[in-house]
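Write out this protein's structure.
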Amino acid sequence: MNMPQSFGTAMGFSLIIYLAPTADTNKCWPIRPTLRNELDTFSVHFYIFFGPNISIPPDRAAVFAINLMPVLDSGGVLNMELKLNMSTVKGANLTVFGCLNHGMPLFLRENASLRCESESAAGFFLSVNVSANITKLRIPYPQTGTWYLSLRSLLSPRFLACPNVTAEVYMRSYLTPCINDCGTYGQCKLLRTNNYLYAACECKAGWNGWGCTDNSEAYSYSFQLLSTLLLCLSNLMFVPPVAIAIRSNYLLEASVYIFTMFFSTFYHACDQPGIVVFCIMEYDVLQFCDFLGSLMSVWVTVIAMARLKSIIKQVLYLLGAMSLSMALQLDRHGLWNLLGPSLFALGIMAVAWTVRTIRRRRCYPPTWKRWVFFLFPGTMIATSAVALYAFVETEENYFYIHSIWHMLIAGSVGFLLPPRAKPDSKVTPLKRKRGCGYQLCVNEHEELGLVDPAIITINSICKS
């Protein structure tokens, strides 16, 4: 159990009972302090002496003081919960009223209009009774300083004191970073602005509000299912490039495309903001593998188009994988993570094509059909995909624009991947070097020392 670390004020409450003046100048009402237990950033519990069940005297109010520290407490949410103990009411039509106010206590008087305000201050009103015995209050970004909670039990409907009943209330007061941890459709984030630390909910799937509880613009279940299926199934467009790569004997490239298709599918299944979510491993791992596979697919395709020597191509593949992994660790969402490797690979391809053109003294690739039916369509599709990714994609249109991006990138690979390299007809296997045509065979018996070497017959000489 976590023990309280400090008392309710900045200097620490002592066990002295503070007295609050009432309308009657001849008497004062005591104020009970609270203990403070800090658990984490914007996570504080306030404990009452001899609590959490508190008895409310029938003739006066019970007042409690809660102190919020500057900077440390103002960026969270102050939560107040009251629950009436039904067994202590004894069948009376009793209501416990509460008034939470900053700076000074406000009291509810008998035979008066029940308002939690005065001429100079206003507070938050709470009440529990037999029909509704639980109430909750949440105050985002509360003002620092001392807050006072005044509780008074009165009989309904005339709001008179009941001298024969001492009501008992369970009170819980605590600080949290966000309201209900932002619920199912939100994520609580710790932010800093101009040296001011605060927590806020980042809502998803169209939900809004302090705790992501406003569903007026929320996405329906069918819409969430449709967006998830569209983002996942659009990766099946990598199946034709994989088949083309295997047929053309580009096995390394095909393995990269399979890796990309697999992790992109399950990353988008895990990345959904709503309740249609399926994660096979940690989200961060899926995201890294998806981004790495996407960039590696572009890298290996352009390097393969350059038609370099096998050893050079494999070295570039390895250097590209290591460099892209480092770049993704630095910034996964940077636009240059895509444009940088693409432009560098295009530069290598351009140099390789230029050198081959100069050596052969004709344009490379040499056939116009390759340019018209493969390179030009593939380049246009890839350029359209990059333009959508860089300039059109937003959070609102993400699910269908990104699905189109999947299909365009996969489609461009099928056009741009070069055909299988043809063997050079001028290169022929080396002919076997012929000897003189004869060789001396050692007789097995002679080798074993079983016969005289002088009686070797003509059978000991064989033709090669």
